[in-house]
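Researcher: For the record, we're logging two predictions in this thread. I'll number them. Prediction 1 follows.
Model: Prediction 1, sequence and structure:
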Amino acid sequence: MHILTGPKTGLAIALLATVVTYLLLVDGAHAAVGGNAANAKLCQKGGWSKLMDSSAQQFAGEDACVSDAAHDGAIYAFATLHVERCADQPYDGLCVSASGSGLEPGSVVTTTLYKNGSAVREDFPIVQGDGTVSLSPFAHFEIPCIAGNEYSARATGTSAESLTSPTLPGIPITSNTVERISACS
């Protein structure tokens, strides 16, 4: 039986042991840290205040944002839709305008007017290239006026795609709801 004990063999074994130990330590450290640092960087330096998670909820703070991103959560630019009553309202009906930002360019926002819970009118503005939408006032009214009709309006759309890697499609965005009861006077 021949035993390898030369200086070159000993050096080769020591070098191999060092490389294997290094690889095990680096892989273990990477596994302990985990996550996605590039996505988490989106949240730093106040970035979290302009971001939302995959359920369209704005982050409460940097820590929540970083935690979500580091665990491969999808991060989106904050998207919003807002419906507002017009200053002048019909006696029996509802007039609204809608606006939004952070939306998927080229997508459609659906603004629906309801009377007593049933849809009576819809409008479909297209989101501009910068992710914004602005709907001119539109209305539904009835003649003769019947006091007590309940009207409401809300808008729905789609956020821009995620900022995280890998990129995910936009998520549903829903506006506030505006309500009004006809007064006939």
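Researcher: Logged. Prediction 2.
Model: Prediction 2, sequence and structure:
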Amino acid sequence: MLTSNVVGPLRPDITPLTKFFWDGCAERSLRILRCVDCKFYVHLPRPVCPKCLGEDLQPEQISGRGVLYSHTTTTRAFDPFYVDKVPYVLAVVELEEQQGLRVASQMVNYAEFALRVGLEVEVQWVDLDETLTLPYFRPSNPYLRDANDLAGVK
């Protein structure tokens, strides 16, 4: 769940179950829970592995590489912080570590013609403000990036 902040981006509600993820974002390290027993990656974070019902899940840094599974262009801001950021592309990325392991994010630094399901992507860390860094994604191939779309991308 996200909470509203009038002067900045929505803030995550950090819980004991999700703290590892947000700490990783602050360190520019993409971390996903993994079951110690069966090695299955679990995202969204939960206390029990859906594959083997094991309860020993540990955060693991992953590559940040994957493929664009789905995307849509958003043209209306859902929050005042995003009014000057539309249009933007919401994306579902399937990570290379495991079939079906997907994260929701945004696409940045892409040439419009490049967006297609199956596009190879990699994590691109974006600082939304001084205290919130999020994992967005960009094309892995530098020739499919938009050199003019670097605002806010670190």
